[in-house]
Amino acid sequence: MKILHLTAMAALFAFTSCCTSSKTTKGNDSLNSLAESKKMMEDGFMQGTIVASTAENDCPYVIKSEIDGATVMYDPTNLEQGFMKDGMKVWYKYSPLRMMNRCDKASPVNLTEIKAM
């Protein structure tokens, strides 16, 4: 009976320890993510999502961002092959281009820096 009691207590301890450390890790991940976001924004980066399209008269890839509650789309004319992935989350810096739009929904930009999230 004592062995069964000790086994049950050991299992309960192991389960509790496992779950507690898991929650702590998730909490730390959230804090690290917030700190990284703050630093990237302070460094002038914008947060965005790569959106791919095969529709006629559409840009093949745009970066979709939320700015002050509004959705904006940029047509990166120099997007590298490694970032041509639909749904990819990125940090980016850009400069606007004075050229005719290549598609209706996005403004052409030159990426000066881009990093995967």
Description:
Keywords: Signal. Residues 1-19 form the signal peptide. With 117 residues, this protein is α+β, with helices and mostly antiparallel strands. The protein has one helix spanning 2-42, and strands at 46-52, 61-67, 70-76, 89-96, 107-116. A hairpin with an 8-residue loop joins strand 1 (46-52) and strand 2. The N and C termini lie far apart (54 Å). The model is unreliable at 1-25 (pLDDT under 50).
Q: Layout of SSEs?
A:
Elements: H1 2-42, E1 46-52, E2 61-67, E3 70-76, E4 89-96, E5 107-116
Parallel strand pairs: 3-5
Antiparallel strand pairs: 1-2, 1-4, 2-3, 4-5
Keywords: Signal
What's the overall geometry?
globular
**Fraction of residues in β-strands:** 25-35%
What's the helix-strand series? HEEEEE
Largest sheet: 5 strands, mixed, barrel
CATH H-level homologous superfamily name of the largest domain: NigD-like N-terminal OB domain
Based on the structure, what is the oligomeric state of the protein chains?
A: single chain
Distance between the termini: 54 Å
- CATH architectural arrangement of the largest domain: Beta Barrel
Signal peptide: 1-19
Keywords: Signal
